[in-house]
Structure formats: structure tokens, C-alpha cells
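Recall the central idea of this unit: under ordinary conditions, the amino acid sequence of a chain determines the structure it adopts. In this exercise we apply that idea directly, starting from the sequence alone.
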Amino acid sequence: MAEKGDKKAALVYKLSEKYDKLISTILIGNNIVNILAASLGTLLFIDILSDENLGTTVSTAVITVALLIFGEISPKTLAKNSPERFAVVAAPIINVLIILLTPINFLFSLWQSLLLKIFKVEETQKISQEELLMIVDEVQQEGSIDDDDSELIRSAIEFRDLRAEDILTHRMDLEAVMLNCDKQMIAETFSTTKFSRLLVYDESIDNIVGVIHQKDFYINGSITDKEISEIMTKPIFVQKTEMINDLLKQLQKEKSHVAVVLDEYCGTLGIVTMEDILEELVGEIWDEHDEVVESFAETPDKNVYKVDCLVTTDEFFEFFGLESDTESTSLNGWIMEQLGDVPETGDSFSYENLDITVLETDIHRAVYITVKVNEKSKNEENEE
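Accordingly, the structure predicted from this sequence is:
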């Protein structure tokens, strides 16, 4: 409104920037009116009723009701329902009061500074993450933003809390080639995986030495004549506790798309790609080569789901409406906890109202499980 040339709106904006002086003036004015009204009312009713005690009593009742109606409830109701309009009307009056009460405001500002020094209180106007999320919820409920906008804002706010270990692709799922691997085999790996980059390791996956980019491997449609060591780029190594907002900046600085995540023994725990990080902000990013996989797929059997074990424990418990009681971040880790052993096809166990069966395994880990959801008894629902 101020940018469009509304002078009164510009005044409101100017006053809002001097928040402490504005609030101080309103409080001083409020108290002056209340005290003056109470004093004048008492004198008036004592004079009318010719009885000090009765006049004081009547004055207290009448002035209290009058101040509540005309000094508190009415103006605050109007201001709440039409904040911009009310502020524009009230701003010139408050501006005059700020000028008139400047000496008193100055004294109160000195008193405020003294209090802050005595109690060693640091002034801060920071908003916590929880407060920001509450604001987003309120704005969404009011209809100012839709669900998609709300989800995007929430992702951006919570982005700083995520670490590399929360979003990595585990070493068991990596596609990598050996340093001395035959080029034809590398070409086949590029063809079957549809990846644009491949990790290169020397002897062990724990010793990743580089990254090959498809555009460097193929020159004019043919496999390059150069050695793999000549065309691969140096990998970026990060600890699993690295915050992903810091990792994003590092990838941008190094002009890289892949970071190798190390465990506490400096072995390869997994990798994080630029796409993984961006998906935490904007949601799943699909390309023409991605195979669409449902993490929680309904089966023909009633209340039975086929679950991809790549999901996290948080996603699993959230989907089935349960409270997480494990420190494992991976669903596979939780399954091993429950079984007390390496999972094998056909293994089963029960948890809360779920019957869980290992459907498929690969190299000592569960690939898919089936989850049957049993209806909770009334006693269990009441306990919840």
C-alpha cells in the first residue's frame, strides 16, 4: 500500500519499524486514559451522589464497564478484523502521541537499557524453527497458501536439520567399476544402469578413487582411447554427520554432483548426489530412465502391503501410524533388531498390530517385506 503511494500506509510502515517506541507510546497513553478516567469518574460520582463511599463504588463499576467496552473490547475487535484499515486510521493519532510523549519515551528507553544490563539479557528477534512451522500451518489453514507451497516451505525450513547419512544411497546399492576394469564392461554398466556417472574403485569399494562421467567416456559416439585414470575426476569425501546444506555448498563450489560418504572407520558408507539433496527440497525428481517404485504398495489381500526396504524407519512408522522406538535409521537395521539375526526369505515377526514377513532378500539384507495390518482392539485404542 505504501509503495502504491498511500501516505497513511507509509506512516504505518514507518511506525512499525520503530516497534519499541510505538508499543511504549500505546502503553503510556493507555495508562494515562485509564487513570484519568478513574480519577474524573470518582470525583464526578461523589459530587452527583454526595456520598464518598457510594460514589467511589458506582464510579468503579461504571468506569470499568466503559473502559472494557470502549477502551478494550471494541477497538481491539475492530483492529483484529480489519487490521490494515484500523492501522491506517489510527496511525496519524499515534504519530502525534509519539511526538508529544518523546521525553517520557526517552526516560523509559533508558530504564529498558538499564534493565537489560542488570539482568544481562541479550536482545533477540530470532524466530525458532518450531515457531516458523506453526506460522506456515496457520497460513495454510487460512488458505493463503496451498498444500504444495506449504510442503515446499516446510522442506526448506527443515532442510538444515538433515545430515548426509539421512539421505545417502547405501554402499550395498552402489553401481561402481574397478579401476582396471575392461572398457566394454564399463560401457555395459552405463547402458544397463542408465546412470550418467559411475564410481571407480581400486581393489575394494572402500577405496573409491574417482568418478567417470559418461560424456568423457564416449567421444563422438565411440569409447574413448584414454585410460580410465585420465578421464575420471577426483571424488569428494564427506563424513556421515555432514549437514546437507553445507554439503550442497561444497558440491557447488567443487562443481561436482557426487559425494562419497565415509563411516567412522573411513570406509565407504554410501554416496549423496546433488539430486538427492534437491529432492529433499522439491520432492521426488523423476527422469525418463527412472523406474517408478511404490514404497508401500497395496496387495490384493485385505490390509496387506508390500514394502520396499529402502524406506527409512521414520517413513515406515509414519505410514502405519506407529511411534518409533528404535535408533536405526534404515528399515533393514530395524528388521535385524527384531529378528535378532540376518534376515532370510520367509522370516516373520509381529510388532504392535503388524504381522511382518520377509518376502525377498539379497546379500544378507531384506529387499521387500509384506506387512499385514491387524485391527486394534477397543482396549488398545483406549490406551492410545
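The first strand starts at residue 169 and ends at 170.
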